[in-house]
């Protein structure tokens, strides 16, 4: 994939603003997040201590899990506190360093949150090779997003050549990589996405064999019937990013001893709890459904990146980005993610257009 030239590395001794902009959690949502649940504010930039680096963030990653952390309900990660910086991965450049392991000018990715600059002790920072791929790709297909798809597909779904796989939210950042990993293993892949344009992207760009537009189906039964028309032989594996009524439509179409990777629950965010009606098929079809969080499997990170990088170098890992401009746009980008406004990876660019 073609990409634009990387920005010129920061120069040692450069002067950086004494204040910067960040986004914090202002209040907990009552239902789906609203603009007033976020607050954009200015903060003083702290001086560096020994062993620290200052990173100028170029991109914010916007991901569904961030919404889950806005609530106080039990989850796999601690809730974001009121007044705390919205969490998330960023990609940026080291502009000041008192850390022996990081030099000024290096590009890094890490959990630095929704802010224009950040001070870090280096924990969790990963270098990004911008000669290989654009910086923001290390937040997407070559970063946490891609590794999430890799783990769920290769370690849980475990598709074999000739098997049939279904991927929900197939036009999203994780789902899109999952589709391509299954295709790389010789599988027949059916995607589920919202809208004709997204379905065309899933089939024509990502290479899925078929894609069902859930927005055209009026019920779970109708969605299930559409899936059955695309795969009358049933599904051997499912990569699920949605849960709720979409998973309900898939479960009766799973083959005996099928495997399901439970990656996301975007259908449930901000709404009253709902229950699966078709969960009986877990027993009837002797299915194996496993939830996973990518950070539990960092020991496999390098293996995942090796495969993803090889596919990228061969031109077999394609992706699309939806980019909002400016940190003030981050709350709207997050809200839009839940209604499916994005195709592929949702990012916020913090630097001026190159």
Automatic annotation (TrEMBL):
GO terms for molecular function: oxidoreductase activity, acting on the CH-CH group of donors, NAD or NADP as acceptor. It holds the Pfam family ADH_N_2. InterPro entries: ADH-like_C (IPR013149), ADH_N_2 (IPR041694), ER (IPR020843), GroES-like_sf (IPR011032), MDR_fam (IPR045010), NAD(P)-bd_dom_sf (IPR036291). Keywords: Oxidoreductase. CDD domains: PGDH. Residues 31-348 form the Enoyl reductase (ER) domain. Gene3D superfamilies: Medium-chain alcohol dehydrogenases, catalytic domain, NAD(P)-binding Rossmann-like Domain. Transmembrane segments: none annotated. This is NADP-dependent oxidoreductase. It comes from Bordetella genomosp. 7.
